[in-house]
Design brief:
Immunoglobulin-like; mainly beta; six-stranded mixed β-sheet; rod-shaped
Length: 263
């Protein structure tokens, strides 16, 4: 009795190409008809004509399937056989062979891979914090169809903000800038102030968002957490000797100031 069950035959890519060339070198008048749109992970059927048994091959990006089928019925393509997006070739052989090619496209978005580089950056390098997302379906195929990705930034303190970016060819990204601070001194007392603090969309962060100023001098390290008021944040330190002051808000680091105060 003929084995009608589906089998997946793992072959090296070169062996698959050799098999494809041998089987498609023959001609068969009847055409194989496949659906115009095939989605990854969705099974379908290919109708056949005639009678008797034939051998069916399915060559995909990551495997080759082979089985015996009865002509005059339909060849059932299982969902597990078309999980990988890409070009496939269906081949039906009896006394001669006929073949057709078709594309399997990624299914609906299901997963994201996210990269942030670098995690912090000085303000002297504007627009240099890149957040990038890659859109995949449930089978790890890159989703090339247009989509949108919502980037949401949630600082350790303060209000979160978001930005929607279009995904092109499976990739969406946004860019963020740093903060800038300036200082005025009165002897050993230094007052630092930010420029207006904005999110990645250029919108002012809401009042109450916490900004952290850090001072490192001869007395050690000290930090002042202060909320934004009317778009800016201010902090005050008593500086001992040479001091280095910087500012941070969420993932964004500001420029560093080097100052000298009284001992």
């Amino acid at each position: 009795m003929a084995d009608l069950g589906p089998r997946l035959v793992r072959l090296p890519r070169l062996s698959s190409l050799v098999l494809l060339c041998l089987l498609t070198s023959l001609a068969w008048p009847a055409d194989l008809r496949v659906p115009a749109n095939v989605e990854a992970g969705k099974g379908f059927s290919i109708p056949t004509e005639g009678s008797g048994e034939a051998t069916f091959y399915l060559l995909g990006p990551d495997h080759v399937a082979k089985r015996t089928v009865n002509l005059g019925g339909s060849v059932q393509i299982e969902s597990r056989e078309v999980r990988a997006a890409g070009r496939y070739q269906a081949i039906l052989c009896r006394s001669s062979c006929n073949s057709t090619t078709f594309e399997v496209k990624a299914s609906q978005p299901a997963r994201l891979s996210f990269f942030l580089h670098p995690s912090r950056v000085p303000v002297s390098m504007p627009d240099s914090v890149d957040a990038t997302a890659f859109v995949f379906d449930q089978y790890q195929n890159l989703v090339l169809s247009p989509n949108s990705v919502d980037f949401r930034v949630t600082p350790a303190t303060g209000a979160a903000f978001s930005k929607q970016s279009p995904a092109k060819n499976g990739v969406a990204w946004m860019r963020m800038s740093g903060l800038r601070i300036k200082a005025t001194s009165n002897g050993s007392v230094v007052t630092v102030e930010t420029d207006p603090v904005r999110d990645c969309s250029g919108n002012a962060l809401p009042d109450g968002t916490v900004v952290s100023f850090t001072n490192i001098d001869q007395a050690g390290k000290s930090t002042v957490d202060t909320p934004i008021k009317k778009g800016v944040a201010r902090g005050q330190f008593r500086v001992h000797g040479t001091a280095h002051i910087n500012v941070a808000c969420g993932v964004v680091l500001g420029n560093e100031l080097a100052l000298k105060g009284s001992l």
